[in-house]
Task: structure prediction
Amino acid sequence: MALTGIGIFKLLPKTNCKECGDPTCLAFAMKLAAGRVELSACPYVSEEATAKLSEAAAPPIRPVNIGVGDRALKVGGETVMFRHEKRFENPPGFALLIGDTMPESEVDARLERFKQIEYERVGLTLRPELIAVKDESGDASKFEALASKVKQNSDCCIILMSNNPDILAAGMKACADRKPLIYAATKDNLDSVANLAKEHSCPVAVKADGLEELSQLTTKLTEAGINDIVLDSGARSVRQAFEDQVIIRSAALNKKFRPLGFPTIVLPCEMTTDTMKEAVIASMFVAKYGGIIVLSDFQGESLFPLLVERLNIYTDPQRPLATTEGIYEIGNPDENSPVLITSNFSLTYFIVSGEIETSKVPTYLLVKDTEGLSVMTGWAAGKFVADAIAPFVKKCGITDKVKNHKLTIPGHAAAESGGLEEELPNWKIEVGPREGSRIPAYLKAWKP
Ligand code: SF4
Result:
């Protein structure tokens, strides 16, 4: 049975040395009990305690990585049933299906569409992550050729889909170095697919006929030393698939039932032939509790709402959406261009950068990390005040980019800039407009 926070605390060194990143051993123990940290973060746990804590230390839903490099996808690692309890951790990946019987022109069109679909929203880039290469022909060489083409034409994560281990092995020849998800191990091919996953150290999806069989198969895989597992309960009716998702999540979190403690894959593409219905089904699984969502095709009008829904559900409800701190160059600014500063609340960044673009005046926009707070709230919290702004301006590198050291602060933050002239003696501080809509006129009239 899983240990409580106090139970874990009794086994920790109790030195409060803070090396784990938490102020006390008790705080660390509480996080460990909630599955929010790894036991390995504390370097001083004895071997005996490690053995006792291994059960408590394992996350209730194992995080699984698919792919390599910057575009690798992490799914699972969830610790709550409902977003408002804390937050959802790892957004589900959207996969585009490409079959090996599709005409070459259709395959090319889908690969091109996959590349093109990308949206900027509140300073963030939204895009899908995976291509599911599906064996429809039963021909290993065709499957291998398609896997190879997908690998060469995209840096996305790959799912290899077949029930035939020989065909999956052919696909692996083409793209094993991209660490694809192997879909799927079933009761009929478990050993062969498990060997393939082990040989290439790749994650594997398990497909079963119901949750009981699913639990038996995952138990066999973990006994064979395979732990990077993704679950497919096999349900293809919307109602059953939804029910299974909820039961899997609840069994893993509330009952600590290890055989179901893995992320899931859902296939709306196999639940309907109506593309709009498919998008609606997918939207349900974004909220509850798909880890990977496979769609029959991507079209902007259906995928964009899904990407936005995912963004909204997987933001931390206790932390506003934030843009990365730094210098944003808008319209190729040079050494004589204006320098504006604002907070990193995403909406603020979105409005200010949009108005600068509208002005067509090349500008440097400095975005100060205020932990996602707006200018006024950031000021009230002491995060957008002279003491905080000045060190950022000095260190961010803007001094080397412009000749005229003139910094424009938001008009409604004029009072907050008190002391900024003293903190930045080499800069002239100018008060900009109060409203974003006045930024274009301000920039057009701006003089170095
Ligand atoms: Fe305690 Fe270990 Fe964290 Fe140090 S690193 S505070 S000993 S849990």
